[in-house]
Automatic annotation (TrEMBL):
Keywords: NAD, Oxidoreductase
Top EC class of this enzyme: oxidoreductase
Subunit structure: Homotetramer.
Identification of the protein by name: aldehyde dehydrogenase (NAD(+))
EC number: 1.2.1.3
Amino acid sequence: MTSAPVLPTTDELRDRAARLLLEFGVDPVDSGDLPARTPITGGELMRVPATSAFEVTCAIDKAHSAFRTWRTVPAPQRAAVVRRLGQLLTDNLDALAELVTLEAGKIGAEARGEVQEMIDVCEFAVGLSRQLYGRTMASERPGHRLMETWHPLGVVGVISAFNFPVAVWSWNTAIALVCGDTVVWKPSQTTPLTALACDALLRRAALDVGADPRIHQLIQGGADVGTQLVDDERVALVSATGSVRMGQQVAPRVAARFGRCLLELGGNNAAIVTPSADLDLTTRAVVFAAAGTAGQRCTTLRRVIAHVDVAGPLLARMSAAYHQLPVGNPFDDAVLVGPLIDGRAHTAMRAAIERALADGGELICGGERVEVGGGDSYYVRPAIIRMPAQTAIVREETFAPILYVLTYHDLDSAIALHNDVPQGLSSAIFTGDQREAERFLAADGSDCGIANVNIGTSGAEIGGAFGGEKQTGGGRESGSDSWKAYMRRATNTVNYSTELPLAQGIRFG
């Protein structure tokens, strides 16, 4: 097992961050009360101004005012902004990915993949701008036409999390803009620098194509800033990504004012491994899904439910792979596991491991902190724990690289075990049996929003609607027909006759 022993200093990373911000046209003024830290060393890169309550109101004012004009621009013309944003992201892919690594601690390959995902969703949204289809239905009344049309919804509030500091913003923003909405973005207070860069790119894209730059507003700060966005009646839709606890606070507040919510919350994702599974393929998929991003994805694989006949051989393969995972500096191309975001994440991981062991779990490998260059950073070896049963801690989501392994005897009991958690985001089955695959995908199979066969739980493509059920929130972002969440539907009846027949054959007068 290897680790990257040397880290750049915080001063070096601070200089790197300032240089990158200048590339995006952002003045790296080190003043404000919002610290931008890097999990690579745990040090502070700089401070940025938090948005005041008055400034939040002004930002929503601007977005609401811009919406009144933006909604009248034809959708293919609105797409020009998103097309230009995609071009700018392509030109600045490496620089933005570097900022993602600095702030979120992602390894280079994953950070570049996140920016590529932004480019892909821009392409998707541009094509979508010519496909915001309504439908025409047969009217029961002669000389009448019955149809549905879709119209821009209003201001969309986007609240994003640290683990995908730029991609989730793009999923929402690219589609909202082509749908005719304007956007107010409240990023994680942990990743303010990537937000400044994205806002600068979108502002430049709007100016380049002659669009009103007020269509996008960035607000920065803590929970008070998010609460103000959630409570403002001018915000028609709140799209929030984060913990279940956050969603439980957001949803009732938005519902109380009859706004709309799009929630993408926690995941406790599992993979069923059957006797017919290709164990080499399964191992590769499990290791990436469980250890990638240091376990800090909502789609991270957290449970493996293996048939008793294959659990031993699978555990041996996974343990061997885990022992070879390089942990360390995410700027090192040889490293596959970067740091946890902060000390609280490490504390939560240690507490979860202790609870699992107290419940009779067996620690197969990992779980210990890795000393990488000193400082206040938190690097850990991904852990595998074999559990005798699905205890309370297994049913919780710990946002860290802990993989619980359970066993089963028959597929029905495996599916029941799989579904017996409050969350319902992503899921997988590894099998060479088509009947088993179809059973898992059936209505009484996986209860998640994403169900895969012979592929891991993470790494979704932008063409498919992303989101989940139960405590995951029920929202859908990105692909398929998720655009409908960002628009309002109107049913239209047109009478082109000289008569006035009523529906259901009613006669009046």
